Every structure is written in C-alpha cells, then in structure tokens.
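Take one record.
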Amino acid sequence: MSQMLQKELEELTTHSAWMFDETILLLTGSTADQIRKLRAETKLPKDPISYPELKVIKMLATEVGNRETKAYNIPFLEGKTYTIPNVAAQKWIEKGSAEELNKQETDEWTRNVDEQKKLYLKIQDQCQLVKNLERAVQDGDIESPSDIDSLQPIKWRLNKTSVLRWVHTNEEKVYRLRHFPNNIDDILVNELQLFKETRPTTDKPVVKPERTTPISPLDAKIQPEPVVNVFRNDGEIWIIIFNEKELPKITDVKGLSYVQHALMNPDEIIPNKQIEGHFDESDSSEIDGSGFAAGNSSEKMDPDTYRAIMEEKDIKNVELEKNLKQGKLDNIELENEIEKIEKYLSQNTYQGRIKEFTNEDIRSSDRIRAAIKTAIDKINEHDSSLAKLLKSSIKTSPTGTRYTPIPGIAPWER
C-alpha cells in the first residue's frame, strides 16, 4: 500500500496543476474522503482520569444496558472492556457480571486510549487543513482555473505554483496540521524546496512614495465618501441599499432578519441556535428537508454503539424468523423490540451511516436555509444581482450560518 501511495505522489510532481484531492494527498498522505470517513468513525475516548464519574470494567457475562449505563437496550458483551458510569459498573461488579481490570489489563487499556486520542487529534487537524485549503481557494490565495462557485471542491483544479506559494507562506501552520506518514517520502517537501530555490530573490512589494504636497481644502471637498451597503429593519419594512441604489421597501419576513444577522458578522460561523434564538421558538413539526427521519436524538451515536445495535437487531431478526418457521405466531414482544431498534436507527443513521449531526441540528439548519431562501426570493423581485450575491455568499449547514464577503463588495451596515 505504501509503495502504491509513493508512486502516486511521485507521479504528481510531473503535473503543472493538481486537483484539490491530489493536493490533500500531498499534504496528508490521504484523500479528503478518507479523512472524512475516519472522522466519522473516530471518537475521543473517555477515561476515568479525565472523567472521574466513569469506571473501566471487563464483562464476565453479557448484560443489556439500561438508563444507568447511558446505553439503553445495548448489549455489553462478555469478554469486552467498557467505560461506563460508576453506579452501573458497581452494580454489575457486585452481581458478578463484571470485574475491574488488573494491572496488566489497565496498562494495555491505557495504551489503547492514548493511541485513540492521538488518532482523534490527528484526524481533527487534517480536517482543519482540508477546510483551510478550501478557504484559501475561495479567497483567491490559491489560484484555480475552475469555476469554484459551481463545482464541488473535489473537482477544483489548482495551480501548482500557487499551492506551493500558499504552503510556503503558511508553512508553520500547515506542517502542524499535516501528520504526514513517516514511512513515505514527503514529495511536497522536495517540491517546496525547489520552489524556494527558483523563486526571485527580490520579492519585496513596491512601496509607493508618500504624498508630500498637502491636500487643499478644494481637494478635500471632492474626496469620495466611502461606499457602504445598508440592510436595515424599520418596523414592518426593510430598507436595503446596494451599490448606492435603494431598493423598493420590502415587507418583513423572518428570513430577512437571518440575512441581516449574517451580513453584520462577516466571515463568522454563527451557530444556528443563536440565529433562531433572536426569534420565537421554531415549529419542530416542520418536515425535515434533508431526507432524514425526524427524531429526538440530542447526541451523535458513536461507532461502538452502532455496531452493538446492529448486532442486537440481527440476533432478534434471526430469533423472529426461527419462531415463524416453528409456527410460533405470538411474537408481539419481540416485534416491538425490533421496532424500537429500527426507530432508534432511523433517528441516528442515514443510508447505513451514522449522522454527523443531531436531528435538531439538521432541522434547525433546514429551517434557517428555507427562511433565507424566502427572503432572497423577495429581494430578487427588485434586484437580481443582489439576490445572486446573497445566495452565493451566505451558506447554512448544521454547523452554522456564514456570510463570506465577495471581494470588491462594500461592507454592510444596519
């Protein structure tokens, strides 16, 4: 596998441009998709040192979790090691279903936890590096001949020299986030060294001489005032001025306030709860436009829990099928248990994968996105260029809502 990766990296040095994913491969030794997949599967482990309310135990018999274990109806398998609340752990130890780890087992468990922590931090750093690279392209710090507004990042083509210049300018920060594998030759380092040796020695910006002649009173009068755009609420109407042109008054809808909140906080990811917190509580009965089933999950499911639930579901389905073959038709209790498991899975997974965000995160982002779309549609009735700008520069995700200023567009004020 290492040889294949080495060959792939060496081949990239012959290219005059790199695809976005090829650049990520040069930076981290992994593709963006591999990094995102690991992020979904990797969870920061909890240990009793950091969480004194927890205890590590080894199961001597299989038990089903309850509310005390904070893993309701999930099997805890014999021979496996788990970290659970002290109260539940003590009850199982007294019952004889579990025992505390001996010194050798504790040392091994500690080593595993340390490795999991290192892997978790590595994946977090690499995810941040992917975001930084994407933002550098969007900001124009890295040149791209691709239409980045209409294409997904994976399809962006990046100028090789521009990428190397960006890495060189942000070298310390980039190298801290890379975590490039030690068993692979770091081709990017060689390319960067070559870039440094061939770039001009006089790379200083041209400094324009300061004006020595004082500005006359007449000159001062004709100095243009700085241009600003206005997005202001005035009771039931909105006053919007864009590029020194005032739009006709627009009647109030909730989404206009969301747009204003984003415009007043450029380049800031505003939590969706904060945006919705300015208004009345949203109707939770709205349809989830993301395609996820509505549910009440408030915490993301971890991979261990998912595997345990799927295992329990398979066991119960086999049991039900066996009963039906034997002519046993009274399976109401078993069918109810399977239904509960399927309901829990529908709330926490989508197309066989663990949801990255809770259902409420997703519903909140859907509500805000729909409200902002309604507001932009209203603006489009009077100024299509402003509507297009807002549509491309205001983005909402389960993480939050963000306005990214377009170069050359004046700032906004209330």
About this structure: Residues 303-353 form one domain. The chain is about 50% helix and 15% strand. The two ends are 57 Å apart (CA to CA). The CA atoms of residues 123 and 226 lie 44 Å apart.
